[in-house]
Every structure is written in C-alpha cells, then in structure tokens.
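Notes on consecutive records. When two proteins share a document, each keeps its own sequence and its own token line. Never mix them. Below: protein one.
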Amino acid sequence: MTDALTALDKISEDTAKLGEILEPIRKKSVQPAIIQPIVRTMARAYFESVRPELEIVAQRKPVVEEIDFVLQQLLQLATSPREKAAYLGQLAELRPYLMEAMLDLMKARGAARLILSETEGAILNTLGKMLPLTAASYEQALRDISSGQRFSWRGTANELREALREVIDNFAPDNKVMAAPGFQLEEGQKLPTQKQKIRFILKARRSPSAAVSVTEASLAMIEEAVAVLARSTYTRSNVSAHTATDSSEIKKLKRYVDALLAELLEIS
C-alpha cells in the first residue's frame, strides 16, 4: 500500500491534471474515455491508501465523507458522456477537501513547523482569518517549497495560483466588477478576467495608475511562470535536471505571488 501522504499528493496532482485536460475542450459533452482512467486511479489511491489513516486523524470528521462523496460523483460522471461543467464543479469542490486532508495527515505525523518570513506569516495569518481554505492551500505550497522533496512542482504552482485567484475573487466578485461604470467584457469572455478584477480592486482603493500597471504585470508573470512549470513536465526528459530547474522556477513564482498577495491584502 502506498504511503497516505504520497498517495494524497498524487491525487492532488491528478486533480490539477484533470482540470488541464478539461479546460481546452470546446465540446459541451466530454467522453468518458478521456476522464475515466484518471478518476479510477484517484479513487483507488484514496480508498486504499488515504482513507484508512485519514479516518483516524481528521480534525473535522465530515471531511472523509465529503471526499468519499465527490470521488463517487466523479466515478459516476465518468461512466457516460457528461457536460464539462459537471466535472469542473466536482473538481472545484474536491480541491479544498484534499488540502484539508493533507494538513490533517501532516499535523498528525508531527510535520516540522514552518519557519516563516515576516511577509509569509502576515499573509498566512490574514488568509486564515479571511479565507481559511485558501490559507490551507498557501500553507501547503509553503511546506512543499520548504521541504524541497517533490519530483513535480506542477501541483504546488497550481496551489499558489489558486490561492491568489481566490483572494482576487473575494475582493472582486464577478457581479460587482461587471456592474462597475464603463466595464466591458474582453473579446471572447463571458466573465471578467483576473486582470480586470485586479484593476477593479486597485481602482476602488484609488491606487495610482502606475501601481495598477505594475500589479497587472505581476499577474502576467505569475501566469507565465505557472505555464512554464506545466510545460516542463512534458518537455524535460532528464529527471534530476527537471527537478532542479523547476525548484528554482517555483521559488520565483512564489516571490511573485507573495508580492501580489501582500498588495491585495494590504500587508506592508
């Protein structure tokens, strides 16, 4: 049986991988052959290697039932052609539960306490009060980077990006952004982009235009850094070179994310 933490880490990566597979699909209906093998692998790893230990150590007992339910829903969806939105909805629901489970397992095993910089501590403390699940994602990324013991950093990159997205969405809900005077959707978009949301937040705070431009540029660098890490998984054949290079890239990405989170959370 695979170690529970290792299995849960792989499930988190497979969750991100499913999102990447689904995102570019333009058809409304997704064929089961595309999704079913990954979902079955995730479910098997969870029920065989993660659930037995999680059931004992989970600080919030319903988390076990919540993960059970979402994985069973995904298995059911993957039996026949289904709408893309149905899969994305279940994946969005699963992700925070996996983060909660990961932290519970790590705490139960007495994982080493994180040594945080002043900025990291302020970000984590603020997120913990405002968006607890986002704080869990950010803490997981910090632990990944602190340990340095990952063969793939794609999951960590996605945690950082999602933490940032959740903060942006909290300060700039779609309906408020779209109701702002003069707002127009970008071509081909049905909802505001992250760039438009950033602009909305900073303008509401009366930030100078130069600060808005710098923050938008930081957002663009974060998206590019995440894309670089995703592409590297498929383009580097030498595993040791791949891991060393990606370790440097994830630290660079974190610096960008920290700077933008500090700006949005108004941490000086």
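Protein two starts on the next line and is unrelated to protein one.
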Amino acid sequence: MGVLVLVGTLMLVAGQSATGADDAMARGDAAYARFDNDAALEHYLQAVETQPDDASAHWKVARALADVGAAIEEADSDRARGLYERSVTAARRAVALAPESADTHFILALAVGRLALFEGPRTRIELSREVKREADRAIELDPGHDGAHFILGRWHYEIATLGWFQKAMAKVIYGGVPPGASVERAADLFARAIDLDATRPGYHLEYARALIKLDRDAEARQQLNLCIELPQVYWEDPAYKAEATEMLDDSLR
C-alpha cells in the first residue's frame, strides 16, 4: 500500500470514528432531553468508546451515571453507590482531559456530592471539601454557570445545617466543619442560579427551603408555587414538584 493511500485510509477511519462519536452524542443528548437517562448513558458510553479522549463524552457519561443512580437509589442502594463511584471516575477523567471546562468541574462536584451521601461522617465531610472546590472552580471558569451556583448553594445549606453530632465529629477529626458556610449564603447562591436560569423547578424548591430556614415564609411560598407551576425541564422535576406541594401543605399553610 502506498504512503498516500495509507494516509488516506487512516484519515477516513479517523473521520468515521469522529462521525460515530458525534452520532452517539447526538442520540445521547436526544435521550437526555426526553428524560431517558438509561438510553442516554448507553449512547454516551458508545461515544466514549469511539472517542476516548472526548471530555464532553466523559462528563456526560458521569452525569448520566449519577442520574441513573439517583433514580434507583431507594430501590437498590448498592447499585446506586456503584453507579456513583463510576460517575466520579468518569468525571475525574473529564477534568483531566479538559481542566479549563466549567462543565467538567461542575459534574465532578455533582458526582462527588452524590457519592458522599453514602459515606460516613468522616468521609462525607472530607468529600464536601472537594465538592466546594470543584464548584468554585466551575464558577471561576464560567461565572454564568447556573448549575455550579446551585450546587454551591446546596453545599452551603448542607454544611450550615449539619446536626450537632456531625459537627462534633468534624471538630474531632478536622478541627471543625469547613468554614464559611451559611444558610444566608446558600439563599444568595440559589437566587443567583435562578437569575441565570429561572426555568428549573428544582432551583426554586431549594431556594424556598433556605428561605424557610431564614423565616422568610412569604418569599418561600412564592418560590414553591413557581416550582409547582413551571413546566418539566429535568427528569427529577416531578419529584421536586411533589415535595414543593408537601412543603406548602405542611409548613406554609
């Protein structure tokens, strides 16, 4: 085979691989848009197999793994944990491939946060530091990243509302919980996420949760009603809407 023919063949194969990865990514994006996380995961895994150095494919695999895990968490916690562990691995690979991408750092924060829920107090507090670090980095790279503001808001809320036992454990192990967390800061970050994308029911639910802690019930009621009224844009929105309805009935009558 001549050199030119060989080069041409290699270029053709490379082009076919890229096209195959693009097709798989497009199918994954379409499945994700229709809230079919299992199908999205399958397509994104195909994209990674075809283009193993594509950071976008890796972070979308990580996102899909986390979402599939969340959907089965109550029914099969062991499998969910395994999916979260795979999600963290995929997210770390995405960050390694694209360290200047806000999306890769955001997904790593998301994946680590999901996995942390399965850990004991010692590991959970340690992982919380990584969640904050990755969310901060995502915002540094893209100040308009609504998801990063939201997850950082969740970090502030969760750390600020730790129970006394967890705080005591953190004090023994680390000398205290990670500093600077507050419900007020959480509320500000949720509000910022909503400013960036007001269509997400989950953002309004978590903002309302923080507002209730701050005794701002009238504002919380408004946010819960928005959560209920907005159209579904994410697979978990029906659960958010149900929780918002319950909070209105139980806490804000």
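For the record: The chain is about 80% helix and 0% strand.
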